[in-house]
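Sample log: ABC transporter domain-containing protein.
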Amino acid sequence: MQGSDIYRASNTSRTRSSTLWRNRTAREVFSNEREEDDEEALKWASLEKLPTYNRLRKGLLTTSRGVANEIDITELGFQDRQKLLDRLIKVAEEDNDKFLLKLRERIDRVGIDIPTIEVRFEHLNVEAEAYVGSRAMPTFINFATNLVENVLTFFHILPSKKKQVTILKNVGDEFQNSKHKGSIVTSTKNISGIIKPRRMTLLLGLPSSGKTTLLLALSGKLDPSLKVSGKVSYNGHEMNEFVPQRTAAYISQHDVHIGEMTVRETLTFSARCQGVGSRYDLLSELSRREKEAKIKPDVDIDVYMKATATGGHEASLVTDYVLKILGLDICADTIVGNEMLRGISGGQRKRVTTGEMLVGPTNALFMDEISTGLDSSTTFQIVNSLKQYVHILNGTALISLLQPAPETYELFDDIVLISDGEIVYQGPREHVLDFFEYVGFKCPERKAVADFLQEVTSKKDQEQYWARKEQPYRFITITEFVEAFQSFHVGRRMGDELATPFDKSLNHPAALTTNKYGISKKELLKANFSREYLLMKRNSFVYIFKLFQLTLVAIIEMTLFLRTKMHRESVYDGIVYSGALFLSVVMIMFNGMAEISMTIAKLPVYYKQRDNLFYPPWACAIPNWILKIPLSLLEVADWIILTYYVIGYDPNVCRFLKQYLVLFLTSQMASSLFRAIAAIGRNLIVANTFGSVALLAFFVLGGFVLSRTFEKQQATIIDESEGKTSNGIAQEVQLPRIESSTRVSTSSNSSNNGKKKGMVLPFEPHSITFDQIVYSVDMPQEMKNQGVVEDRLVLLKGVSGAFRPGVLTALMGVSEAGKTTLMDVLAGRKTSGYIDGSIKISGYSKKQETFARISGYCEQTDIHSPHMFIEEVMELVELNLLRNSLVGLAGVSGLSTEQRKRLTIAVELVANPSIIFMDEPTSGLDARAAAIVMRTVRNTVDTGRTVVCTIHQPSIDIFEAFDERGGQEIYVGPLGHRSRQLINYFESIDGVSKIKDGYNPSTWMLEVTTPAQELNLGVDFHEIYKNSDLYRRNKNLIAELGNPTPASKDLYFQTQYSQPFLVQCLACLWKQHWSYWRNPLSSSQDIFNAMGVAVLFIGIQNSASVQPVVAIERVVFYKERAARMYSALPYAIAQVMIELPYIFAQAVTYGVIVYAMIGFEWNVKKLFWYIFFMYFTFCYFTFYGMMAVAATPNHHIGSILAAAFYGIWNVFSGFVIPRTRMPVWWKWYCWVCPVSWTLYGLVASQFGDITHVMESEPISVQDFIRLYYGFKHDIIGVCAIMVSGFAVLFALIFAVAIKLFNFQKR
């Protein structure tokens, strides 16, 4: 059966429409059933006379009065584009197929063939090498061992210890869970199949079954380190005969975007880079044939096709079309946002990821879990739009979905079911159930077919579907399913098709792309320039802050070296003179160090776009460099204008300009160097380390710290002055298991007892009522600019309801309805905005301090410490197999999306709360994982707890429906058996269509209550609900539950937190210990740095490398503090204490090696002082870095703020200019500069008691350091107190900042 036949059979209305198109005359079709007026005909005739190039850039645009005016397509404005789209597609759900049919009708009318792509894969096999068992764990010891082993293996000295495994799945879990060393034995995966054009193909499979690997293999995006055998071909052509990255689009399940860009800007940039493909050639041929046949097309369709076929525009009509189809037009001008920058919702971000590739000209789509975070109604609409595109415009699509609703499942023509890296079934959707009945399994009634298909291959779920009752059940393995499919009639037909090679003569010349990039190099450069300039404007605060801090340091320097003429009478004057120059170079170079964090933040997006061949690397690098030149000119001008003449350099203007030029080039060199280091290091910790080492090399070898020819004594004294620190990691301290120290604590021991896993601890049930809740935020400036006069934007408009113990309540609504907003308000998680109304807990007014103790909140974003095990929380949501897995970073390492979601839920459930809020607990889960989660939640509710969920695709029998849209509820009430009460309520409203048999009630409810349906029916569902008996019953229930029962008491706890202070400290310390030990990139850098990097730069490196670690952990801390797991002080103490043993190991390693190599006196007392000062110097630098992050919104700003003080500390350390030569108004700062105390202690302890006369000067060493530096041996004890005191001070400020500041905006 052909795809077009299936398509027509599935949509009778579309069939009638298509028949009408074919039965009409050309005049009726292309005149839009209206007579052409003479003026429009004359204008069109004049357009026809133009040369082809000009004709394709001119069109007739109909105005609001119906008059057609000639316009230049390249100058189409925003309002014109919006009006054109509104005429073509008024409502995306209803008009998109009509619009696409018009496009197809125009193309078919002149006999042009649309290119098609058939993708074949034969005997596809993917292999990888990986460590097995304990060697797979990223501990510090493994990291060091692997590093040495890789070097020896490279030179063929040792054989590789990695094991080769065959995959079409993610085997990372097996690697980590294996307790022994040895290879993992798997069957050989030789999979074959065909993805056909004009057919929607659904890819189903359990997590880690190989879906993503298959999609990557078919789209040509597999990691080069994997070994791939077999063949993948497009229209008979193998991958090396064309450019697969531009012929096919792979849409990842990970949403990687630049948070500062708006949705429209993100899609527009993508459209510019991908170009128009073969659209221009198609339009050119189309126009030529229409001219020959004297056919006049629909003017709106003509303008649309011309606008989408001419590239190089900053604004694209195809971008506006995709925004409308994906429902993103309402947030098109909102920034995408990230974890610290509030932007669009998770569902919208997922659609941006999809739209980013849809704006391109590719004909083959490979889409990986595009429905995560979307409600079933939105998913249906998006998949339906894709189906219309595939069927009408001959596209090819393979789409992976986790939980497709029945109506979404019905949109697909073919099914590919994959399990354990092998294809169990591939063929028409209507035959898939027949195949499983052929094997012996049957799908029950009211069971979603997609859920059945994923569960029937699972060992845990298979038995319930066994249909041959006369035969005893036995587990049917994947291999047996595969063999059965090969003998099934669909499998035999597939084998026959694969045996017949594709006829290459049928390949359309425009089907496969051979050009590496979509547009010219010049246009790529222009697009990247535009984006980089936009990002610089959005990040202008960073650059202003850098300029401000540079100005501040320049003022310090000019007042420190203040004189009308630089003295040149002695060698010591020369040291001061060169010190001023050295300081200028140091500050200019340090100022560029912020490029590291800013570059690394953009790398994930760059890698994605580079791999998709959006642009070559140089097109991204050149704008980044050139656009920073004016900033460098400004910064250096600011520095040199303030300092040059005040310090007393030569007043000759030529020398002024020469110094300006040298410092400008130094600034450019430093910025470029740090960008290069960021690109090489890729990880912020590694890049900061390389950056510090690079700075050290420049400064130490620059001729100031060490002259090119020097004597031993000079080297000793000068090298002493450089000193500082590194980041820390703790040695393994065996702490007792603290079963109740945090919220991740309660009964894992009791989890095997009885049906209600982990939820058998005693608790007090509580109800929660809320009446007339209004939530508003300050009106965004963008909306004020558009003429909105109100001061506040209202997001929740008088919402009321009640949640009772033992009742599972679902907050239902389309995406962006306000579900998460309501939950945040009720749970007390909002950090901004205005809340009005009444919230009561068991009749008493809610107090957040006590409410947090009895409630749990599973957030939509899965935030966890990346290096933690999940050992305490496995049983509740069947995480046993992942017992020893690391959590990892989302989208980078560790647990998969669905595993992280289950962990998020388990973390809250084991805390034994009375009230639990869950924000989309099944988002990102496959059907089986969602069933596990909801089973656990159901058990929790059955114990009498109050549970509230926002949920996109709920199971019919486990939710109470609460639907609110735009902050207004439209139904609050019971679901009833088989959703009958909910269905009766909405079907009683005039005009609402009846639900079809087998249709998911939740999806039906969302579809019949959309704004478009309200408009069509002329009703307001909110007003209907407010006038119903159900509303009045709910108000009575709110009033009843809003009054406390006679014997009840208000919530009261003797302590703010559930555990005493000491237990909180131990728990946090235990967590930080494992987190650090399993972060080898952080811990190994400390030991590496200690082996030869001068003290100041080790200190800077410590400060810089600890900042990203603290920044990641701080996000977790915000969540856990809001849940009242522990207070800020235990967290801060643990974060500080975990650094101490690692810093000590670093200080001893550095101290012993350097002490011996420089040749200091081997004296126990002097060695002790040397290591003492090293240790506390490293400590205060590390704690200063932590403090900088805690006091700023993110580690980018924290690193810039810290860099300013590095330079100031360096100036006042007494090394660049001795304290004895400083002006009187700056000498005081030496006593508050921590580095000056370090230098004082180091020099005084090593040289302060040496009475030998120096060879170069007739003075003893003791007297020299007293006269020149002002250092006295008697003050060593004071130095020790001050250096250790600074470490304590910075640690205390870190603790206070963590406690007082919350930069997470909600």
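Observation: The longest strand covers residues 119-130.
Observation: The CA atoms of residues 261 and 335 lie 5 Å apart.
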